[in-house]
Amino acid sequence: FKIRIMIRIFQRHCNFSTNSEHKPRPEWFDREKIFDNLISTLDERVEFTAFHDSGNGEIKDHFLKNKNVNKISKKGGNDAQSFLNLLNYVNEQDYNDEDIIYFLEDDYLHQEGWVDILLEGFEHMSADYYTLYDHPNKYYPGMWEKYPSYLIATPSVHWRTTVSTTNTYACKYKTLKKHFDIHVKYCDLIDKWTKDHDKFTHLWNTGSNLVSCIPGYSTHVEGNMLSPIVEWKKIINKQK
Q1: Which end of the chain is more exposed for a tag (fewer CB within 10 A), N or C?
Q2: Considering the entire predicted model, what is its pTM?
Q3: Residue 129 half-sphere exposure, CB side, CA atoms within 13 Å?
């Protein structure tokens, strides 16, 4: 008896990124440990694919070469082209409309149990987009006054409605296809980065919705951008 795939993760990797080379990182930041942490949390409800951008280095020179996971490598060279390559790849597949597509960047650390939390969100709410990242800028006074937030309780956590998030998020396959042209539009090949805030604001203003869980079950591992409350350093230090 084969359990139907519920979540399809596509995690983007590259050997070098001009978009992130100057980002401040905590002293414990380690992409390979972040990757190992993610893999350790997966189960039979998840299908994982590492989507490598060979524009700034081949996969044979990346730690992925030693990992026993499904790998795809395509040439992009920058954030916008990399994500556009991934969007086109996923859009060409024949997935079930109800399958969950989880687009994930390579510098996001997860808490154990995140699979249950994400599935819980999809089961108990009917949002278009979900993120496990509790972005700290949502707590900045006055920043989001024109976008009211609402709290929703599911059995294990709360969820906040929010206008935008980063380019790490989950949605059903049918939602991705419905909004495919919008996702493509905000892959800015001139500026060479994906304008995630502008994209989600566009979606919000055209009737879509997005929720993020509180506390976060994932975090962007960058300077003062960590999801609050959780002791992320303890989680990463569990990886040997």
Answers
A1: N
A2: 0.94
A3: 27
